[in-house]
Fold each of these.
Amino acid sequence: MSKIPYLHYSKDTNNLIKSFYLALIPLIIFNFYKNGLYLYNNNLINIFHIFIPLYFPLISILTAYIVSKIFKEEADINILNALIISLTVSINTNYLVYPIVLFAIFSIIKYLKLKIPQVFNELALTRLFLILSLLINAYSYLNIAEKLNKFNYNSLDIFLGYHSGGLGTTSLFLIIISFIILSFNKFYKKNIVISSTLGYIIPIILTIFISNNSSILPYILNGHTYYSFVFLLPTLYSTPNTSKSMIIYGLFVGFLTSLIVLFFNYYEASYISIFIISLFIPLLNKLANKKYLQN
Amino acid sequence: MTKLIELEQDETIKVSSNVLKYLKPNVIYVPFNDAKALVNINEIVDIGTPLFKTSSLIITSPISGKTKSFKPISTINGQKYALEILNDFEERKRLEPIKKISLNNIKKEALEKLLYTQFNLDFKDKNILILNAIDDNIYANTSSFYLLLNYEGFLEILDKFFKIFTLDKIIICLKETSSENINKLMECLGMYPNIELRILPNLYLLGTNSILLKYLNIPMSNSLVLKTNTLYDIYNLIKRNRQKTDKLITISGNGLKNPSIIQVKIGSPLKNLITDLIELKDPDVEYIAGNLLSGKVIDINNFIVDEALDSILIMKKKSPTSEKACIHCGQCLNICPVNINPLLLSNAKYKNQVKDICLKCGLCSYICPAYINFNKYLEGEQNV
């Protein structure tokens, strides 16, 4: 005789993964348009280069699949992680070096996870290592049109995504749409996203008011930061597990990101802060669980 | 307010309003645990013959017949030893269970004592009485049927209680889906101005007394909640002067053609009852004692209908779902009605601390996107 939960809520982990895929689709399409079709229509690239924006997501999926087979893991979550990361890289990333570096990083992190049970955000760490593949070429997020400074964009264009950034990280508008899509899933950790956004925006706004320096205002519209808050920060396995600790976690990540941005003006600030704060997840869980264990 | 949810349910499963009867089983089993036997094998017994004695109560025979053997049986609360009695169908009554009581002239103290000794109900210092006619099992109507079948008698007895115990209020709680009961009570309540009807949403766990009180925001200290089956037993004893020998159970689910309420002799073998009264849709079914979230899959051979059993669900077999890794979504914590952290159940100290607080309602496992079965951790497995 065994206890069972015969009845189960209609959604599960697979539904959450599907929601992530669904939320990434608009960003992939916009990436193909902005870095491929749009440039081709303006005679800036040839027909072959139209597909480069799709090469990175596809090669990432293939790499994740191979790593999953090697480590005998379920491929679905690794493929999702790879796809999320692929949209953060620059169009200038070296095509050949990228899959090699990605494969190496995935393998090292999988091996580390097997050896060290320490929780950390592996997406953020992977993304930080991927800077290596960008350094092989020029460290730049500008596509050919942006390098030539061919178009004049207004604030609305920037909000819609017509400015420099990672393949899928430029459009704040689409990132907001993605967040809304994900928020419909009960298991998506939107607490973390909202608190990290507040933790990021408030210090920047305060700094603008205190220093009267409006040149830092564009940081508020930095899609790269919000992309990492929406997709990399509330990852499936490396987050705290109570509502309060999720909020604290998000606030710390947002705050650290704003500090790095304000002091070092560093584009990949959010990945650094996600990785650093994720190292404290066990501590946050311990503090959150203290009240349960004391009662 | 307690956070409660409405469970998704198959609207095609409808329990018939005709009550089937299974009151003449060939054999019954009377379970006993740490009780002293008062009869031997091959002894003739009548309805009401004392069979076992524990420190607090005497267990009597629900049928007349001949004792056959002591053998292990299964109940919803696990394996037990039971006395097997062969029915002679003569329905002989050996003893009057209790001196006939008249609620018109009984003293408060005497009634208080009777209810405490017979039903473990403490009316002292209580000024709100709540009748909980809500079933937690989404496919069972046992509690509401006790009320539907006896509502006139129940109202009469509750009204007497109001006067004898000088209560402030009596509340009958029903789910909004219990339309037949609502209609019947609406017709009668005009005659009982002290009894109030509360129609509650179809939320899981309102059938649990402690949760119902929290939901109604009524303090536990001055209120008493009665389930309809307890009031049925009180009603039988006080108004009909009848021993408790039968009960209602719901047999329902998507694996049978005729979901029904059955009035059954306590101690009847479940397999015989199902063979005689139930028509299966599909041979590939599983039997669940209790509700779909926290019930137990049972083997109906050797399983008996005891006092604790309210419902049996016959469900089409589902392909098993394997547990995945926890995604730390925190939903199990959010949904727990008694604020337990299921993720800490691997901690032995914490498990001991919450063992008695946990309602074993199964909501944590219901909501878990990784299909983690937290019940098994509560029962002894180590790692969550």
Note: The first strand of chain A starts at residue 2 and ends at 3.
Amino acid sequence: MKTFIENRKHIENEFENAVFDTSTGLDADIMYEKFKEIQDAPTDESRQIVYANAYSYLLDNVQLEINEHTPFSVKINLGIDYSYFATESIFQNALFSSQVKKILNEKLPEEYTKMKKLADVGLDWMCVDFTHTVPNWSYLLKCGFSGILKNAQASKEKLLSSKNHNEKQIVFLDSVIICYNAILRLLNRIYIYSLKFNVPEFSKCIKNLMTNPPETLYEVMQFSILYLYFEEIGIERGRTLGHIDRLYLPYFENDIKSGKTEAELKELFRYFFIHFTAAKRYAEQPFTMCGSDKDGNDMTNKLSHLILNTYDELNIYNPKIQIRYHKNLDGEILKKALSMIRGGHSSICIVNDEAVFEGYKKIGIPKEDSQNYVLLGCYEPIIIGLEEGEIAPLRFNMVKCIEFAINGGRDILTDRQIGYESKLEIKSFDEFFDIFLKQLDYCTDFALDFIEKQGDYSTLMNPSPIYSSSFSECIEKGMDVHEYPLKYNNLSLKHHGLATTVDSLTAIKKYVFDSKEISLEDMRKALLQDWKGFNDLQNKIIRDKEKYGNNLTTPDKIMTDITNHLADRYCGRKLKRGGVLRLGLDSVYHCIAHGEKTSATPDGRNAKKPVSKNLCASNGMDRGGITAYMQSVLKIDSASYVNGVPFDFILHPSAVEGEKGLADFISLIKIFINNGGFAIQGNVVNKETLMDAQRNPEKYSTLQVRVCGWNEYFVKLSKVKQDMFIKQCEVSG
Amino acid sequence: MIFAIKPFEIHDGDGIRTTVFFKGCPLRCKWCHNPESLSFEKEILFDNELCTSCLSCIGICNANIAKDGKHIFIKENCTLCGKCEALCPNNAFDISGKEMSAEEIADAVLKDEIFMKGSGGGVTFSGGEPLMQVDLCIETARILKKHGINIAVDTSGFVKKETLDKIIPYTDTFLFDIKAIDDDVHIKCTGVSNNQILENIKYIDSLSIPMEIRYPYIPAMNEGEAEKIAEFVKNLKSVKVMRILPYHNYAERKYNTLGLNYPLPHIVPPTKEEISGVIEKIKHSGVKNAIPY
């Protein structure tokens, strides 16, 4: 085999315009039609069996291709457009989406209609979140594909021989057995097909994985890639690869004992990482590293260093790295990570162990369980093997509640009654704030109630035999993971638009009630008219320095009043399913989509413009610099927001240049974290570079920016997104 | 009179620092990159490049007028009322200079106490020439010292020894520029003699107060001074580090906003290689701890 450098060009674009061997199976569009027939056909079978049979049909007929330039040779044709959502597969489009709508219309007709109305006006974005999952990797690696099948068969026999079983349990296990038999048939097909190519190591690996758990680092990596394929085919998206420096260490050490060299294993990591870069998964594939063990000792090991160094050398942005920071973390790891961020490799998130432990403690989960957390997607912790967190079924745009408070619960752009009918005559800021909170509660309560009820039908909407069977509990109890067999069956809520909300309330306090420069009635009029006729005041409000993100008393007090209110009301709330509610404050890109449906706001923002992102100050408003912004964020009780309170930053390169700059950068991040900061991610870039890249994209094809929990190439972002970054840079330089 | 307080400064001493910029300077260094620091008075900066002639500011005062649909700013008519600065949607106006009490300065600085203390940083008094307002420096320093804040003073050294004596008890580090050893060169570059400056540096050294020496390297102005400065510095015992500050021309636009002519329009900033060469020369002359800015 040639070297990685020679092979790289044959791998990194292998999924774009991928060609498959049509003799190995059916075209994706033929299978799509077949799935539509399955979806529409009347049947007495349970949904789990219908699903499992469809899954088997797909695996038995899917087209294959072998790439001889990589040890991870096989590609499977899922009819996916890899340039965007990897989950836009034939399975998703033909089976899943229509089933979700059908079930929600049947089971929750009124609530579903109302939820769609809320989504229409940009109040929330809801989904059935099957796309943020984390299998129990340790259990999977211990069992292997054949082991899972054997365990399911054994559990079925055991249940059948006991008097206490029910039909549902047997149906679930049957669905697992059908799916895993299909997986083993597909592995056999891949093995036979691979023999036509010059990939002997790959063939040997697949043959072993058909009958045994993975034994070497190569087999572990190949197993992980295949497992993610198999889960994703069935709609769920396994995100994190797990805590890989811990998980892979025994295999790494065994390989070394068996005579492999560190250089050979490093080469393997190069191919492993580039596989995920090539797959171009939307929002990418993360993995977790380092962290503290139960006694507070650093879990960093030689593999941690090797992984970070290998990643750095590749100059890639995916997979993404999530480093668990704690006070005893190996200093070289933090230095390397920040030096990578400074150098433009910003696909790194650093999360604070202590803040996560505190967050879990607040929702009743002790450290002996939470200490094994990983970050699941962007920065949402999950206790691998013990917790289902359903991290993103609902993203809630708080800014709309300003609109409702000012306009009697009516949406300004559509004039529909969405919030509760609150009074229009308001005499004081306290009264206004109270109405705002009531609108917030009213809308959140409804959405939350819907999401909880929706959970009752998860298995009917999308059975999860592959994901579920990665948990021994599911196999032993004969239960789908969405029937809540795990120790912690939690649900998460994300509120966003924090800065726009706070700045709007600050402006109302100051200009409507304190200085009385404008009446509430006129402010309503200004928003209805998108500030036309009120431009001087709009300008004055925009230029007013009293904004969230600058460590200022008034806006930050309003901010903590909101976040504490949400925490008191929702954090750790007990759910009917048995788990508790987790809160988060990140927005991803919904700040753009929601902004498009949000009227002008009292902070001077025009209608349809993006609302603020994550915990960021409104675009360009963190004029007090990064330390003031950090201190505003530190006022949030992060323990109440275990689903994520990420701190995004943009620093000008000159602020962290040279040896001293790096040392100060390290201090800055340590101070933030040691004072309770939850997680950080960011970009070191200047405005001129981004503007030049916007004008001359051909010169900047590799310029990456940290978006939310993932990176993207700047030149591939839409202009709206690019402009958001450029505006953010205005403060940093 | 203060013209800026900047948090998260990494170039003005150890660790993460907040730099307080005092307004007014007795020197007129031709390369000065903060021309708004020169005058001791409040003044207005108007950036014509940012002005879009939206004419929002017309009619508020006699300094902003419109002619043929274009905005014209007449500085002589400006009373520094600040209305245009508050109004302009494009941030074309900036009033530089604010009277602040020691308490107000200290409050602003202490906002970043956790960053200063956590990074081994502190506050840096800079300017302008901070010691031209030595009493304000002392009062501010007195408050900050109660909070255990490390204090650096970035001075030209062009002050009387008695002035220096006043601030010494509060100062953890001095940052001194040496622009030239040859006095003729110094006068040509800055308008003043360096006698007092060099005496003050030797005096601070004799008291063993840590110093950072800075050599602003300006092609065609003081480039021939490198080895002479190194000769001077190598005999000092309290110099922790000597930094070479390369000339840059980023301030040209700022001069325009003040209605001033940029003094060095034709000088090309040195390359990294050129600076490395200068550092090597300085090291060769016996200053081992010379580093780039």
Note: The first strand of chain A starts at residue 64 and ends at 66.
